[in-house]
């Protein structure tokens, strides 16, 4: 079996490794435009903030390691033509310009995503930085020690983390977003308001509900003009979001309107023998029971593994995702899974939510701290569709608990009566996950 993997993204790396594990005799060619693989871009803000022990550890694989595993790595190589039906590729060595054609038994599309970069005046200035790949990370790491101010555009997870790390390192920061609150697509208002207060406490200027119109270089920096004002700083950083990088395959496979490639539960596209995974593909979103586009490394890794398990025959079905994620800003941890009441309404899920706040362990302990917990459920069925937690205590595993509940279609009533241990060092007699589920059941029954 001869397999081409287009793109050494998270999904590409795990696809190739799993294919080799399942089929040791398979001939696997991986094509990658860059000279690195498996960069953990979620660590860019942490690196800028000096929280990374070594940048080399921001890669969990290398071309050399993969080659030792028997995978042919074509680095600095771009696939320029693809006939998916015929499994025919043309690829170019970017250093020499030499083009080669080859035929395959299977093709795996793991081309990832591309940063959204609107065609605005001045956006290609050297003082406007992207925050997507290894090169972007290096560029930012070089410039940030020298600057005194920065404008961050986009208040999703990436922009929020960048703004926080720059602010705690004594930079004057302006955070711009088109929506009216930070992390608006990730949190409900009761959580984002807490973060907004922290940004303001740390001197971050919030320019929310504003659309950027242009960039203009000044004598010593950059001016960003929005529909509501003008802001100046030494640099601007883009963290607007991502789109699937699938233009090469347009018209050949079924896609969502945004270009995300649709797959079945075995990661196979509408063309037999062609698979897709990661940021280039759709996911089955369990809270809505529909396919969606949710670019997360966790989704990419699992989908890549499934490609390897299903490359020869349909074997292991995709269990779907809850889009479980987390962020820590100003020592406040936030972890969430599934839908908020607001996002449920946007996706036509008739849902309700409840929020509680209580100390994570008994007050007789010498120390404890509050946890804010939220649960969202479908009104008709009482099926859990989302949960969120915030605290200075580590609440990350609570989101994983609710994620598992969503995947298994548990109701708020079932979660309320699920057995969780009690020990004063770790929690209350009624764990806060149980407490919020009980509050949800009580509210739903009124």
From TrEMBL:
FAD/NAD(P)-binding domain location is 1-304
Record keywords = FAD, Flavoprotein, Oxidation, Oxidoreductase, Redox-active center
Q: Name one Pfam family in it.
A: Pyr_redox_2
Q: Which residues are in the Pyridine nucleotide-disulphide oxidoreductase dimerisation domain?
A: 330-427
Q: Which top-level group of life is the source organism from?
A: Bacteria
- Listed cofactors: FAD
Q: Which InterPro entries match?
A: FAD-bd_OxRdtase, FAD/NAD-bd_sf, FAD/NAD-binding_dom, FAD/NAD-linked_Rdtase_dimer_sf, Pyr_nucl-diS_OxRdtase_dimer
The family classification in the record reads: Belongs to the class-III pyridine nucleotide-disulfide oxidoreductase family.
Matching entries from PANTHER family are given as: NAD(P)H SULFUR OXIDOREDUCTASE (COA-DEPENDENT), PYRIDINE NUCLEOTIDE-DISULFIDE OXIDOREDUCTASE DOMAIN-CONTAINING
| The protein's name in its UniProt record | FAD-dependent oxidoreductase
The lineage is:
Bacteria, Bacillati, Bacillota, Bacilli, Lactobacillales
